[in-house]
Specification:
Layout: H1 12-42, H2 57-68, H3 78-102, H4 112-142, H5 154-165, H6 167-170, H7 174-199, H8 211-241, H9 250-261, H10 270-298
Helix pairs in contact: 1-2, 1-3, 1-10, 3-4, 4-7, 7-8, 8-10
């Protein structure tokens, strides 16, 4: 088993750039399936005489490409991509800071609950960047269903939301984003650190972990993350894309979904989520680790 967690100096500049690179890798690798996930999550239950618009992940992929081309899979990517550098920078910085705050001495090691707590701090810090980006992304991804092109892009969407409802309109769904990201970030980082540790050969440091093992640890961390996050993510997607005034809060969304479609509705888009989670998060952590190694080589004392 590899080296346990050690106290590390937190470098905001290095974490900013490394987290940004990792986040860009995540978006580029995972956005097409994120688009499919959201469309599956918000499609209404068909009446007895009707057929659902999408029968599953593959059907949604096929119809999206047929109607909108490959560009349709990348709709709404501008908003998360624009926020991905500060978001992932703060996320990785928050995780490092959370570890730092819990270690009194340089030789202290962290327990799994402590690693989980550090991850939750990361989730809390990123929510206020994540929430508006998620709101805009979801609206752009689903506007095709209405047949009316209301928003021409992320900036236009944000501008219209602000004019119509002020800051509250842009940040609609923040509580649900917190409910999703705080615990799941704990799971995300804890599982990644745990997997890195057990995958490191005896006598070696986790910093020497091979690329395939980093990819596996990052991909599995993504799967664990979404296994916990998906029910709340379904509620968030429906709440953020609903007409203004339809729901007074997430409890209304939960009650309606369960009443109309049962508990299974909370796992809409499961296949798309899990298909996306592994490669997207593998790419994210690989991008982060490679960039950190480069920055540490370039400026070891920074």
């Amino acid at each position: 088993m590899g080296e346990p967690w050690k106290k590390e100096r937190v470098s905001p500049v290095k974490n900013f750039f490394a987290g940004g690179v990792g986040g860009v890798c995540l978006i580029l690798a995972g956005h097409p399936l994120d688009t499919i996930k959201v469309r599956l999550q918000i499609q209404p239950k068909a009446a007895p005489s009707q057929v659902v618009l999408y029968s599953g992940t593959i059907d949604c992929f096929r119809k999206t490409v047929a109607r909108e081309g490959l560009r349709g899979l990348y709709k709404g990517m501008g908003a998360p991509l624009a926020g991905v550098t500060p978001m992932t920078a703060i996320s990785f910085f928050g995780f490092g800071l959370g570890k730092h705050l819990q270690q009194r001495e340089l030789t202290d090691t962290l327990t799994y609950p402590q690693v989980f707590a550090a991850g939750m701090l990361a989730g809390f810090l990123t929510t206020f960047i994540m929430a508006p980006g998620e709101r805009i992304k979801c609206l752009l991804q689903v506007q095709t269903h209405s047949g009316i092109r209301k928003y021409s892009g992320p900036v236009d969407c944000a501008t219209q939301l602000y004019k119509e409802m002020g800051v509250r309109g842009v940040y609609k769904g923040t509580v649900l984003t917190l409910m999703r990201d705080v615990p799941t970030s704990g799971v995300y980082f804890m599982s990644y650190e745990w997997l890195k540790n057990i995958l490191t050969p005896e006598g070696q440091s986790v910093s020497e972990l091979s690329v395939p093992r980093i990819l596996f640890a990052g991909g599995m961390a993504g799967l664990f993350n979404w296994a916990v996050a998906l029910p709340v993510d379904v509620l968030k997607s429906n709440f953020q894309t609903a007409p203004e005034g339809k729901y007074s809060g997430f409890r209304d969304v939960l009650r309606e979904l369960i009443r109309e479609e049962g508990l299974g509705s909370l796992y809409k888009g499961f296949s798309a989520v899990m298909l996306r989670a592994f490669p997207a998060n593998a790419a994210c952590f690989l991008g982060f680790e490679i960039t950190m190694k480069f920055l540490n080589w370039l400026a070891p004392n920074a």
